[in-house]
Amino acid sequence: MKSVILSLLAAVAIAAPDSYPHQGRSIIDSDEHVAILKDDRVHEEDGTYNVEVETANDIKLSQSGSPRGPEGAVVKAGEFSYTAPDGQRISVKYVADENGFQPQSDSLPVAPAFPHPIPQFVLDQITFAAEEDAAIARGRSESTGPSDRYKYGSR
Length: 155
Fold this sequence. Notes:
Elements: H1 2-15, E1 36-43, E2 49-55, E3 60-66, E4 75-83, E5 89-97, E6 100-104, H2 120-142
Antiparallel strand pairs: 1-2, 2-3, 3-4, 4-5, 5-6
C-alpha cells in the first residue's frame, strides 16, 4: 500500500508543470522598466505633506495629509489613476480619516439592488405581528399582575 501511495505522489510530482504564472512574484512585478516622470514630495515640520507621482505608463498619484485627526492621527486625502489591463481608465478619489478609508469611483463595485419587491402577504404578516404586539402591550399596562404572554401555552 505504501508503494502505491509513493508511486501516486511521484506521478503527481512529475506531471506538475515546471512553473506557474507569477510564481514567487506579484502580478505587478515584471521586467519592464517604467520611467518616473514626476516625483514631487513636500514634508513640513508640522507633519503635513504633499506627494505627486506620475509614471510613463500613465499612473498618477496625488496625496496630501496632516496630523489633524484624533490623537494626532494623520488624515489623508488624494486620488490615483491608472489604466487597467482591459484598457479601462480607473480613477479613485479618497479620504482616510477617523472614519476609515473612503474611496469614491465609478469603477468600484456597487451592491445590487434588492432582487424583488416584498410580497404583500409578508407585509400583511408584519403588520399583523405589530398589531398583536401592541395589543399585548396594552393588556400588560392595564393589569397589575403578570402578563398572559408569559404563561405556558399562550401564543
